[in-house]
Design brief:
Elements lengths: L16 E3 L9 E5 L1 H6 L10 H8 L10 E3 L3 E3 L2 E3 L7 E8 L5 E7 L16 H17 L5 E14 L2 E12 L5 H9 L3 H15 L9 H22 L2 E2 L21 E2 L23 H20 L3 H12 L2 H17 L8 H12 L4 H12 L5 H5 L9 H18 L6 H7 L7 H12 L4 H9 L31
Antiparallel strand pairs: 1-3, 2-8, 4-5, 6-7, 7-9, 8-9, 10-11
């Protein structure tokens, strides 16, 4: 058997999904497949090179043991509730048990129209496939919980989008599950408490089995998801990552990053940085992500009230007690990440992080380069490179910038007692990130059938904390004419 499927979601009642075969595509071609991940999933990596694998990853052949289905879910999209969304361009092929004993979903994205397509074609342009492959694998290398990339193919057909006709592609995604806050919201909107109970039991068994032994399992589930989301968002922010579309249907119960649509990594730092073309109100700006995570979790709590306690007032009180812990949990994770980035000891003043970010915003310093160069300073390479970051000819008062840099360095030296934790800094500050202009270059070339940039970036992102002379150019921020100001969803 090519993929050792072991399915459970397909055994749930049929109102949880709609079974659907993927669409056929005319002339699929493999761009790449992730042999390392395949091995972890119990899939023979040599099989990835076969015609059978290409047929499976393109949707032209349903693998033995697969039970393709489109999952039902709802969601708040930029604050507005849609009672029915669902997998409009994705199909869950099935599940496998990986070599560590963990259950994983394997899903096709861009595999054609489903019951939930809402008039769409269910296809994917090649660009979003390349973006999600590169960014999700980079996030994995950073150590951030994320969905993974198993394969990417071209379909040999074109899809029509706002910008015109684009080559089509299909992405094969792996996740701990595709359960979303919006999955629970779907059944709340359906006034189906039985389904919510079934779903909660399923989620507990899959993601937090210890909750089954708690005095109140649904409340324990809420707490588990809250912990995972608080840690996840802190990790995002420490890498300058902006998800771009933190709707409840894009918030995973597992605490993994899911749905890389208009996502982006900051170049110059600003706390209200936004790239998503559809986030006109900056709802999901870099600095707003914690409060939006809590907003989403509150929506999740609402779906569980009927299970937490028969008395609604009592259920609300218990849920609010759990939700009230988010700020502290997020703060602990956030400061731990930034203390590591700055090489600070645990007893350093917490306001130093905010002081640092204000300095970066004031002088429009590149987020990744700032911490990269500071790590070099901590390693003994001298301060000249750091001071050069503030030498910007376009600034009105370069002397003021130099003074700010010198003053901050003195404060940093004091905060670290002249002994910054260099090892922590090297593990927290990547050298290579998926810069927006590089992703766009890979997509533009890929649309012409040239995947050399994609392959190069994919290889570099496997080791984002490791020095590489041959990839030194990938460290460099974009030139003014290369700066990407907006990113797009791709649907």
């Amino acid at each position: 058997m090519s993929i050792p499927f072991n399915n459970t979601y397909a055994n749930l009642p049929e109102r949880f999904y709609r079974k659907q075969a993927p669409a056929q595509v005319p002339s699929p071609s493999l761009i790449t497949a992730n042999a390392e991940l395949a091995t972890q999933l119990g899939i023979d990596p040599d099989w990835l090179k076969s015609d059978e694998a290409l047929a499976a990853f393109s949707g032209n052949q349903v693998p033995q043991g697969a039970e393709p289905l489109a999952q039902a879910y709802a969601g708040h999209q930029f604050g507005g509730f849609s009672p029915q969304l669902g997998d409009g361009r994705a199909l869950l092929l099935g599940e496998v048990i990986d070599t560590a004993g963990a259950r994983k979903d394997i899903q096709l994205k861009g595999s054609g129209r489903t019951y939930f397509s809402r008039g769409g074609d269910g296809k994917s342009a090649l660009g979003p496939v390349l973006r999600e492959y590169l960014v999700s694998e980079a996030m994995h290398a950073f150590g951030v919980p994320t969905t993974r990339a198993l394969a990417a193919v071209t379909t040999g057909e074109e899809v029509l989008r706002q910008e015109g006709h684009r080559p089509g592609g299909i992405f094969t995604r792996v996740a701990s599950s595709h359960l979303r806050i919006g999955t629970f919201q779907y059944f709340l909107a359906q006034n189906d408490p039985e389904a919510i109970a079934i779903l909660a039991d399923f989620a507990i068994e899959r993601h937090c089995p210890e909750a089954a032994q708690a005095a109140n399992p649904p409340l324990a589930l809420l707490e588990s998801v809250l912990k995972a989301q608080a840690t996840l968002v802190a990790q995002w922010m420490s890498f300058g990552f902006i998800h771009g579309v933190m709707n409840t249907d894009n918030s995973s119960i597992s605490g993994e990053t899911i749905d890389y649509g208009p996502c982006a990594f900051m170049d110059d730092f600003h706390p209200m940085c936004v790239f998503s073309s559809i986030d006109s109100g900056a709802r999901y700006a870099w600095g707003n992500q914690p409060q939006m995570a809590l907003w989403n979790l509150t929506r999740f709590a609402e779906t569980l009230l009927v299970l937490i306690d028969e008395n609604q007032d009592a259920a609300i009180a218990q849920a609010e007690t759990v939700l009230s812990t988010f700020t502290d949990r997020f703060g602990q994770a956030y400061f731990a990440r930034f203390y590591a980035k700055l090489g600070l000891p645990k007893n350093a003043p917490s306001d130093f992080v905010e002081t640092t970010l204000k300095l970066m915003a004031k002088h429009s310093l590149d987020f990744t380069v700032f911490f990269r160069v500071l790590t070099q300073v901590a390693g003994g390479q001298g301060e000249s490179g750091f001071l050069a970051l503030f030498d910007k000819p376009d600034e009105a008062d370069t002397a003021d910038a130099a003074d700010d840099a010198e003053e901050w360095l003195v404060s940093w030296r004091s905060a670290t007692s002249d002994a910054p934790d260099v090892d922590a800094m090297r593990q927290a500050n990547p050298i290579f990130i998926p810069r927006n202009h590089r992703i766009e270059q890979a997509i533009e070339a890929g649309n012409r059938g040239d995947f050399d940039i994609f392959y190069r970036l994919n290889q570099a992102f496997k080791h984002p904390f490791t020095e590489s002379a041959e990839n030194a150019d990938l460290e460099v921020p974009p030139l003014p004419e290369e700066v990407v100001h907006q990113t797009f969803c791709g649907t």
